[in-house]
Amino acid sequence: MTKWVTIKKLSELTGYSQDAIRHKMSGGVWPEGILWRKAPDNRVMINLREYERWVEGQIKVA
Question: Residue 43 and residue 62: Cα distance in Å, rounded?
Answer without folding.
Answer: 26
